[in-house]
Amino acid sequence: MRSGFDLFECCFTSTSSDSIPKEHSLFKWRIFPYKKLAKFTNNFDQSHCVGKKGSITEYYGKLEDGREITVQCFKEDKRYILQQFINETVILNYLPHKNIVSIYGCAFHHKESLLVHEYQSNGNLAAYLQSEKAENNTLPWHTRLDIAIDIANALNYLHCYGIIHRNVKSSNILLDVNFCAKVANLHLSRKLPDGVPVYATPVTSDMIGTCGYVDPELINGRLSVKNDVYSFGVVLCELLSSVLAKYLVLNEEGNLANILSRKIENQALVELFDPRLGFHSNLKTKQMMIATAELALLCMKCPQELRPNMEQVLEILNSIKPGRYQTNSYSTKALKIFQYAELEEASNSFDNCLGMGGYSSVYYGKLKDGREVAIKCFHDENKREETIKQFMKETEILGLLHHQNLVSLYGRTSRHSNKHMLVYEYISNGTLSKHLHESSSGKLPWHTRLNIAIETAAALVYLHDSGFIHRDVKGSNILLDEDFTVKVADFGFSRSLPDHVTHVSTNPVGTRAYMDPDYFESGRVSDKSDVYGFGVVLFELISSIPPGSMEGTNYVTLAHFAKRKILNKELKEVVDPSFWFASDKITMEMVTAVAELAFQCVQCPKEFRPSMKQVLDTLEGIRKGTWGFNQIT
Q1: pLDDT of amino acid 385
Q2: If pLDDT is split at 50, 70 and 90, which confidence band does 505 have?
Q3: Rounded Cα distance, 283 and 278, in Å
Q4: Cβ partners under 8 Å of residue 445, min gap 6
Q5: Residues 483-495: what's their mean pLDDT?
Q6: Cα separation of 60 and 57, whole Å?
Q7: Which residue in 213, 327, 354, 501 is deepest, having the highest Cβ count within 10 Å?
Q8: How many CA atoms does the CB half-sphere of 402 hold within 13 Å?
Q9: Over the chain, what is the mean pLDDT?
Q10: 125-334: CATH homologous superfamily?
Q11: CATH superfamily of 4-118
Q12: What is the third-level CATH fold of 340-425?
């Protein structure tokens, strides 16, 4: 996108009344005659004045079609004012977004340049917070959190195009009738030069912003999108306290980041919070506000490399809203956004493929800090929408959940990147399927298999307790490290399960040999669908038979085969012969018990299956020798 001055450098040489330079045909909006705007605003009467900021005066008006408008008048005949005006018109022309104020048109009159914006009936956030104090009413916390998410959405969108707002503050955040936030006043914004990475920090001597919101790093000339992140952290503090930044600092010593840090250290955050927000009587609200305060502090970290970017901030806010968050953990949860060139170098141009699937390929890599990684590259070409959906689903789940038996996600590329990649910890020992069906190093011993079953069950219990269904439980999604510790992977098909809901309806996905028949036929998936897939894994562990290898028999799947043999009292045909003939009596009892448990896991209808918590308890009982066949039936 060309800068405003490049595009309009010669546009404003004429100053005659209502003269419209021909270059304005580039605009997609309307060029208003000055006289019409005067009519819409009652000749710019003082009663229509809704605000004044430096050299810009704003008036309320109404168009012929009934739309309410705000007219911004840039009055001074100074080149920098003209440049600011051009800046805003170009940015708003080419970057429409639901959380950025819309521009309807512009006008020119002598030494005046005028912009016509949509009018927001609830004014700006700063004015609203100040009026709350006077009128003794307040926006509820969930509305404030939605406002924060709206602002983060807008800033993330701008940053993706290399645009730095440079004046993020509550008075530049407008609120519509439904309290949806719209970021306004982009006339001070700067676009990073073409070819300069979004997260670069070019040096500038142009110090612009408002005291209390300005990033201290900008004083050293470090211009970057992280300047906006700092200012956004200040706005979060205002939303938490209902007090504008200048007053927050006025009553304390030091800057706002230091004040916030001290209150967190002294466990005195509630001193900052507006008591009218109800956190004293609502623990969930209090937890959400504490998490937001910790995020605010993270946004104001110095140096700016310690701050998350706005894409990460948005993810964290979206995790706070449904309550799936942990306080005191954002410094580790904010995922790194990797550049393509960085991952290309780490993987030696993606020359070591670890595996391929229908949606992605996985490559080995090594980061500059020495960490070994598995880089999952999604196939974008034909199903981009589905690709982004899976990409963001895995990011969301593994950004929220942390468990010793879930694979760790180190970071990802931007969702707006042409190449969608996830960067995982590298698990050196391959998949369970590989060890059961392809390994040439000998069979896994029974106690190792039982431990794998227990650790996989523990991961699924944690996942279900957190409100998620995996939907693709299978041997190739169970990774093993050098100690044969389980790391469950691949959350691209996962779904959240709302509280008090037993199932959700969705198109069946997954691997047929592991797929719950009830889910396949009805489209209704539940946590019991994962139990079915886990039951197939148990049969795999005791039999060493690949679930998809039943061709040439009368059995459609391994589960079908194993159930028939158990019902016909032919368990020997299910169990790996090495366990049946060469093992001691105790081992055979354990193998038989696991077969019985697997049989229960694959029952239909799903109501006959145990929960994963019952499965885990039973497996641990089997390992201890305290399990009985009728324990869960």
Answers
A1: 67
A2: very low
A3: 9
A4: none
A5: 87
A6: 10
A7: 213
A8: 11
A9: 80
A10: Transferase(Phosphotransferase) domain 1 (1.10.510.10)
A11: Phosphorylase Kinase; domain 1 (3.30.200.20)
A12: Phosphorylase Kinase; domain 1 (3.30.200)
